[in-house]
Amino acid sequence: MTDKIFRVNMTTLTTSIQEVPARWAGHGGRGLTSTIVADEVPPACHPLGPHNKLIIAPGLLSGTTAANSGRLSFGAKSPLTGTIKESNSGGTAAQFMARCGCKALILEGQPSGKAWYGLAMSPEGIVITVETELIGKGNFEVVGTLAGRMPAKHAVISIGQAGEMKMGAANISVKDNDGHLRSAGRGGLGAVLGSKRIKFITIDPKDGKMAIADPEKFKAASKIFTKALTEHPISKGLGQYGTNVLVNIINEAGGLPTRNFTAGQFAGHDKISGETMYDRIMERGGKPKHGCHPGCVIQCSQIYHDLKGQYKTSGFEYESIWAMGADCCVDNLDHIAEADSLMDDLGLDSIETSVAMGVAMEGGLLEFGDGEGILRILKEEVGKGTGLGRTIGGGAGLVGKTFGVARVPVVKNQAIPAYDPRAIKGIGITYATSTMGADHTMGYAIATNILKVGGSVDPLVKEGQVELSRNLQIATAAIDSTGMCLFIAFAALDDATCLPALIDLINARFGIHLTGDDVMNLGKYILKTERAFNQSAGFTNVDDRLPEFFKYEPLPPHNMVWDFTGAEIDAFWDF
Amino acid sequence: MKITVRLFAFFRDGRFIEEERDYPDRTTVAGVIDSLGIDKEAVGVTMIASRHCPLDAELKEGDQLGIFPMIGGG
């Protein structure tokens, strides 16, 4: 099946299928969403207005049998940050979109009326229908109801009430193998889908198949690649404890942001740790291992049951547990799981919303540690769209302004995730310079600063951090274009066979001859394209800075402050 | 000398989470790892007082030593 561009104009309620322009042909995933946003979205436009576009693109390898290739990229101008944004997710949609022959779906325009719509994608194209039944409903009901309307094998992309209300923390949900949810969490892209009055997109690939230019070469490369992933020791820990294995090591290193970023260690760390979570999952009949898409060989997700042994949540990740846990001082894993489930249903980024809750606690809304209070506010205020609820759902920056708090951990108005930049300086450079606001996944310096993967750079010294973040951000931009889960990076950093096998997979898929240098140049091109968009939208180097309090509040236990000068940070862009 | 040893992930299996243990003076991190029957090849990170340390680092009275297998996430 030849890849095409699927386009939906929500102003005219028309759809079309187009040939791929030559300059987009070599791109996929983030490289493609960022290229299309840069080509077609006016940088100064309002993110919720008619001129923003939401681009959805499977990666270059999505839909093939390559292990861990099921990531789906969502791109637009972000309503949270005002920058270009790419947020990616697991689930089954990337693979099914690719099997529909869709290289990218472009959603543009805005309907003038009050109706809501559902889109149905198949290899024949897209059908737009008015939707009434599921409006105002949470993601779980959307996915459950659509399962009754669709053939057994289908994918769903949807927004919850938060996206309908166009909250800055609204995410986009993607159904996984088991009817649970994965999320393109960051940057409020659910609000962009809501602004176009699209509640959901279903995908039925019918008998669509992927074309592989050189199947034998693909098979051989796939074998090497899978072996590198499965044999890497980090894959073992991820399968057993999930990403939440990080709570204890980040706490031990003194970089676990606690009580709205006022300490680097949390007394209740072991109560919310991956080790405790694993024991509880086993006691209650859950599943410690679970993949977010077919073909995942790492299986970092899990099924977490409640006290009664009933399903509560899945994809229960470190950053979500840290944010609602240490940052809000909640040491009850069941409260955190309940909050995770509520945020999945409402369609909220669990990092942004939880960090916003921590700032609100500092502002006096609740006592730190009040897990019950958080659940009540999520249900009664955020879910119902009250003024307070919309403020929390607007993200940490909005909450800080509303409650008069100076300690607001955001960069470009996006909440800083689970690693304190005073104690882990490399990640601070990533937060500052990322084209998307604070985001650990843009250049995961934790690997080298803390986990000692891909070398070792002391987390408490400045030397080497800018170069480390730059190299990681370039490589990450390239990986985000392939449809690969970012967790392949641990093997790629340590196992010399991994990256060449990945490049061979891309070459065999398309019948091309990329080299390692080509892939690095792709990463550089993506970062520069994204930065140029931001500059046209009014951002300057002065926006590449961490909040002021990091400079004057030393973080225990190391009692370090953030001490990079502006010029040192700006050197990031010297490439 | 007394050393507080903290174990993480599957290193806890059949051992302990945290224990104060007696070691002779000048015991190294590697010595503690050997005393616990942990395969050094499986060790990813060791920290004394929340700072990374090499396996040949010598411990002193009252140190808190954390021993982690190779782990990752994010």
In short:
The complex is a heterodimer of chains A (575) and B (74). Chain A has 575 residues and is an alpha+beta fold.
3D architecture notes:
The complex is a heterodimer of chains A (575) and B (74). Chain A has a six-stranded mixed sheet. Chain A has a six-stranded mixed sheet with strand order 8-7-12-9-10-11. A three-stranded antiparallel sheet of chain A has the order 13-14-15. Helices cover 39% and strands 15% of the residues of chain A. Chain A has 575 residues and is an alpha+beta fold. The two termini of chain A are 38 Å apart. In chain A, helix 13 crosses helix 14 and helix 16 packs across helix 18. The longest helix of chain A has 21 residues, at 516-536. The radius of gyration of chain A is 22 Å and the shape is globular. In chain A, 61% of the residues are buried. Chain B is mainly β and 74 residues long. In chain B, strand 3 and strand 4 (51-52) form a beta hairpin. Chain B is globular. Chain B starts with a strand and ends in a 5-residue tail after the last strand. The mean pLDDT of chain B is 97.
